[in-house]
């Protein structure tokens, strides 16, 4: 009710402003100085603009705090400088945008301020903004009204600025290595490149069903077939799956592919990227992840999945059978769901995911994965049933996934078919047989390494914010 009363008062002020012939929503303002710039120009005349965050009157003088994206400055209004325009200050409210022109002075209290000889209204605020003193604490309000979150909580803007810097750093690093940034379709006739449930839609103009991409892998590989040797894409992917602290149905990914490289080379490039981003953002490679200090600047060890399972769980998966692995899960993996019909490789991977990541505090590459869960990966050079795949882990969290790419079209067809026949919780998670991609492969594809990194996960890692809603500007939420 109180907000409605505030709004009524502001609407009345708006009508008075209009009767004065004062345009409350002008098209532009000749802002010559940022507030950060104005703070450095003591004794000089500046012309700046921003949003009012506080206002107080004392007879023939008034004070306001004015903010723009560069900083905050006090505005020292004086009747002797403004004349008849001084009385119209009463029509302003906290939240209004104004422009001011005047000398930068230091008040008797020692605060650098602008003493305007003129001011103008740039936008009338009809709804009061939350008090800076009390802040905006309710997380649901913060996520639903991110614009208020950004206005009231300056550290939030810092997180999103760091997100921008990270994405810029990724481009900077890969561009210097000779990669081409490209764009591939968001709407695809078949989904592929990952095991995930897609979003389905219908394109009226073509009268055909299509899918929002779950990954851009298969199109980037088509570009390698077309002659590109180093390509990457930063894009939105969509998977019609659950929501939790680390996952959203809509998320940002980067994938890159390098011809003539295997998974060892891709790990080298990725490790270099993480160190580059740390230095770009913080100037060093020691990061805080939750409450731990982790130095990512050292050489990351590369440990085979079968070795880590034996080392940490005393489980020699090479000697186990499907039946013995199911028995192990029932005894040791509380809460893990078994569909029935899983392959040995699926069970090995499930045990690994359930038990091992939380044990990997220092930066670690886990390499060599079961073939059954990696249909796009090249078979291992010396280990039948395994593929040249890796995942990067830091502080118990996975931050990337990649492999030596499968380049044999006949084996790729077998893998697609097998993946469709494999039992899983949701059949739509299987990768369909993509005949167009298989045709492209038959024209020849060079040895190839690739990787996928979730940008959202990357931002969480580098900002130590382990809730995806904190690092996505406008997260999808249930309707109120």
Summarize the structure in short.
With about 475 residues, the chain is α+β, with helices and mostly antiparallel strands. The chain has helices spanning about 1-20, 35-40, 80, 140-145, 145-150, 155-175, 215-225, 265-280, 305-315, 320-330, 345-355, 410-420, 435-440, 455-465, 470; strands at about 45-60, 60-70, 70-80, 95-105, 110-125, 180, 185-190, 200-205, 210, 230-240, 250-260, 285-290, 290-295, 300-305, 365-370, 385-395, 395-405, 450-455. Helix content is about 30%, strand content about 25%.
Structure description:
This protein has 480 residues and is α+β, with helices and mostly antiparallel strands. The protein has two domains: 2-129, Nucleic acid-binding proteins (OB fold (Dihydrolipoamide Acetyltransferase, E2P)), CATH 2.40.50; 152-301 and 362-471, BirA Bifunctional Protein, domain 2 (2-Layer Sandwich). Helix content is 32%, strand content 26%. The two termini are 19 Å apart.
For the residues shown, what is the average pLDDT? 93
Instruction: Say which CATH homologous superfamily of the largest domain is assigned.
Output: Bira Bifunctional Protein, Domain 2
- How many domain units? 2
Structural class: alpha+beta
Query: Between the first and last Cα atoms, what is the distance in angstroms?
Result: 19 Å
Oligomer: single chain
Number of helical segments with 4 or more residues = 15
Query: Rough shape?
Result: elongated
Identify the strand order in the major beta sheet.
6-10-11-18-17-16-15-14
**Tell me about the biggest sheet?**
8 strands, mixed
Helix content: 25-40%
* Poorly predicted parts: none
Rg (CA only) = 29 Å
**CATH level 1 class label of the largest domain:** Alpha Beta
Q: What's the architecture of the largest domain in CATH terms? A: 2-Layer Sandwich
How many beta-strand segments? Answer: 18
Share in β-strands = 25-35%
The third-level CATH topology of the largest domain is: BirA Bifunctional Protein, domain 2
């Amino acid at each position: 009710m109180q907000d409605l009363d505030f709004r009524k008062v502001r609407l009345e002020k708006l009508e008075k402003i209009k009767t004065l012939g004062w345009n409350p929503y002008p098209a532009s303002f000749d802002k010559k100085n940022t507030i950060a710039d104005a703070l450095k120009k003591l004794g000089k005349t500046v012309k700046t603009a921003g949003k009012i965050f506080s206002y107080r009157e004392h007879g023939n003088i008034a004070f306001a705090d004015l903010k723009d994206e560069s900083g905050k400055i006090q505005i020292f209004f004086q009747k002797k400088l403004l004349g008849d325009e001084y009385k119209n200050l009463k029509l302003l409210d906290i939240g209004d945008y104004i422009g001011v022109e005047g000398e930068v002075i230091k008040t008797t209290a020692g605060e650098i301020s602008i003493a305007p000889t003129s001011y103008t209204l740039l936008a009338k605020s009809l709804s009061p903004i939350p008090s800076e003193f009390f802040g905006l604490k309710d997380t649901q309000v913060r996520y639903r009204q991110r614009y208020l979150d950004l206005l009231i909580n300056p550290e939030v803007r810092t997180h999103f600025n760091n997100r921008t810097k990270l994405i810029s750093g990724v481009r900077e690093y890969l561009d210097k290595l000779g990669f081409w940034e490209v764009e591939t379709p968001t709407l695809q006739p078949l989904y592929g490149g990952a095991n995930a449930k897609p979003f389905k839609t219908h394109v009226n103009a073509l009268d055909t069903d299509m899918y929002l991409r779950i990954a851009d892998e298969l199109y980037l590989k088509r570009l390698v077939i077309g002659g590109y040797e180093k390509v990457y894409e930063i894009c939105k992917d969509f998977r019609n799956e659950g929501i939790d602290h680390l996952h959203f149905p809509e998320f940002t990914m980067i994938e890159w592919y390098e011809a003539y490289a295997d998974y060892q080379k891709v790990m080298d490039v990725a490790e270099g990227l993480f160190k580059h981003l740390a230095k770009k953002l913080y100037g060093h490679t020691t990061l805080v992840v939750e409450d731990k200090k982790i130095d990512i600047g050292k050489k990351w060890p590369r440990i085979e999945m079968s070795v880590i399972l034996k080392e940490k769980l005393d489980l020699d998966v090479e000697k186990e059978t499907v039946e013995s692995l199911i028995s192990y899960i029932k005894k040791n993996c509380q809460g893990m769901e078994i569909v029935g019909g899983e392959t040995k490789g699926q069970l090995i991977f499930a045990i690994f995911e359930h038990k091992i990541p939380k044990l990997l505090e220092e930066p670690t590459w886990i390499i060599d994965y079961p073939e059954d869960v990696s249909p796009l990966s090249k078979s291992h050079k010396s280990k039948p049933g395994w593929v040249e795949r890796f995942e990067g882990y830091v502080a118990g969290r996975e931050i990337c996934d990649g492999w030596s790419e499968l380049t044999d079209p006949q084996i790729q067809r077998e893998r697609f078919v097998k993946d469709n026949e494999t039992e899983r919780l949701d059949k739509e998670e299987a990768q369909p047989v993509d005949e167009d991609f298989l045709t492209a492969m038959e024209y020849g594809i060079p040895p190839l390494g690739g990787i996928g990194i979730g940008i959202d996960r990357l931002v969480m890692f580098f900002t130590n914010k382990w809730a995806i809603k904190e690092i996505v500007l406008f997260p999808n939420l249930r309707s109120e």
